[in-house]
Amino acid sequence: xxxxxxxxxxxxxxxxxxxxxxxxxxxxxxxxxxxxxxxxxxxxxxxxxxxxxxxxxxxxxxxxxxxxxxxxxxxxxxxxxxxxxxxxxxxxxxxxxxxxxxxxxxxxxxxxxxxxxxxxxxxxxxxxxxxxxxxxxxxxxxxxxxxxxxxxxxxxxxxxxxxxxxxxxxxxxxxxxxxxxxxxxxxxxxxxxxxxxxxxxxxxxxxxxxxxxxxxxxxxxxxxxxxxxx
Length: 230
Ligand code: GRF
Known about the structure:
Helix content is 36%, strand content 21%. The chain is built from seven helices and nine strands. Helix 1 packs parallel to helix 6. The chain is globular, with a radius of gyration of 17 Å. The structure holds 5-O-phosphono-beta-D-ribofuranosylamine. Residues 11, 13-17, 82-83, 103-105, 117-118, 171, 174 line the site of 5-O-phosphono-beta-D-ribofuranosylamine.
């Protein structure tokens, strides 16, 4: 036994966040606290399934009704929703309470909730005229996009942004934020307290994050790492 947490990544789409998690854990090597044990999608044709197969990771196709059994059969410790569009049954959010997280491409609680996913989120941000958006990693409970927030990172909205250009800028941050949150959760550097609040880690990005320009990936990664220092 490696002592590492067994992670299930649930993804309906292309799976670029899944890929970021896989790559980050691989880069950590022996220092990683988690392994992606299975990737679950609602359909075999999901890009995430192909990425999992490419990485030699087990895959499963599950309807919401069979999700709990699928995860239990793999002895899953942590569940990561990475662009998962299907309904997650309460049986799953309760059984993995404090051990199930989601990435959302905006600063929750704004621009979240039922029906706000994918490009719709970025369109809503632009329609509202918001100057700042971002990425949020949060614990999942029975309500869409409402669980306690683990980490957020702001992303500026640029004049002339389209939903596509904004999505790309936010996605770059997602790819750095989500894998680090997964590893921190697996290490116990962040946890959900019995009072329903997040312990450890940091919920607010440092002041440098509020610059009008996002720094290069290495600087951004180092600043996000600092959020999860034990
Ligand atoms: C991401 O923007 C994620 O925040 C949202 O869906 C998108 C998934 O993208 N929930 P990908 O499948 O990881 O490329």
